[in-house]
Write a structure and sequence with these properties.
Blueprint lengths: L1 E7 L7 E6 L4 E4 L16 H20 L2 E4 L19 E4 L8 H13 L6 E4 L4 E4 L2 E5 L3 E2 L9 E2 L2 E5 L2 E5 L9 H10 L3 E4 L14 H17 L3 E4 L9 H4 L1 H10 L2 E3 L1 H4 L11 H4 L5
Parallel strand pairs: 3-4, 4-5, 5-6, 12-13, 13-14, 14-15
Antiparallel strand pairs: 1-2, 2-3, 7-8, 8-11, 9-10, 11-12
Length: 288
């Protein structure tokens, strides 16, 4: 199994776009990318806008070669809504647009589906289901909260890909995890490679309650102790905070002790992380 992160926050845009290739099939998960509209009261810097163009181009090129496209939820950094041609002739496995969904995502899903009508070769609701392509299995979780229980951000699906005795689990936006049943699902599936979004530490005390960090650290420690994935890619929400490593120190240190590789998507690719959104002040030549 080959796993290729295409666009992630550590690569410069809000995204978790990932291409997974097995002996049977090529799967593109959450083919989208976006920019934070405002950070430190500043709009996206031209460098960020150029990176977004690059990432969208890369995602569209990967979509041409992919057999299956997966959409775990309808936030704009997880699917490209203005490129209907990208879905032409593809098998589309997506989050149910009518059930376990908030009104915002419901509206976005309806708009998206109307734009791509007639283009995919097949559309399947993925919630809680399994799909087989040769010896490759794609398994989806039931809808889980986009963060803590009771969040207003809606629900997402996690996605497990199994092939050749290997398991890769894509968490989507589970916020850490910060909801115990989400961690239990990950532990039960026992992935060798875990791609996870981490907690949105930037919003703690503002949009997120203070306890979200301690809960996410606790649940991640449980996952590492019980699953012991050989590698964990932690990225997306958590790396929008330049102090994320200090806040996640208990988890990072535990991974080191257990010999578990924990790194950003950029590091997974052998690149230096480029946290453009978190560095937006610096890009504009401002201090602090």
């Amino acid at each position: 199994m080959r796993v290729l992160p295409l666009a992630f926050d550590s690569l410069g845009t809000r995204s978790m776009a990932t291409l997974v290739e097995t002996a049977d099939i090529r799967i593109l998960i959450d083919p989208g990318a976006a920019l934070g509209p405002s950070r430190y009261g500043l709009p996206p810097h031209p460098i960020e806008k150029e990176r977004l163009k690059e990432h969208k181009k890369k995602i569209k090129e990967a979509a041409k070669e992919a057999d299956v496209l997966v959409i775990t939820h309808y936030h704009f950094d997880h699917y490209l809504r203005d490129s209907p041609e990208m879905y032409e002739g593809k098998i589309l496995l997506l989050k149910d647009p009518r059930s376990w969904i908030n009104q915002s995502q419901r509206n976005r899903a309806q708009e998206f589906l109307s734009k791509i009508e007639g283009r995919p070769s097949r559309i399947e609701i993925a919630d809680g289901r399994e799909f087989y392509f040769g010896r490759t299995r794609i398994k989806f979780s039931q809808p889980f909260p986009h963060g803590m229980e009771g969040t207003k951000l809606g629900f997402v699906l996690m996605c497990l890909i199994e092939s050749g005795g290997q398991k890769t689990l894509f968490s989507s936006d589970i916020g850490g995890p910060s909801y115990p049943p989400t961690a239990k699902w990950i532990i039960r599936e026992e992935p060798e490679l875990l791609i996870i979004d981490g907690p949105a530490t930037l919003f703690i005390g503002w949009k997120e309650p203070p306890e979200i960090l301690s809960k996410a650290n606790e649940l991640l420690l449980n996952i590492l102790n019980q699953v012991r994935p050989w590698k964990t890619i932690i990225d997306h929400h958590v790396v929008r905070d330049l102090e994320w490593m200090e806040k996640m120190e208990p988890v990072i240190e535990a991974a080191k002790r257990e010999g578990i590789s924990m790194e950003t998507a950029a590091e997974f690719l052998g690149l230096r992380p480029d946290f453009l959104e978190a560095r937006r002040r610096e890009l504009y030549g401002m201090k602090g």
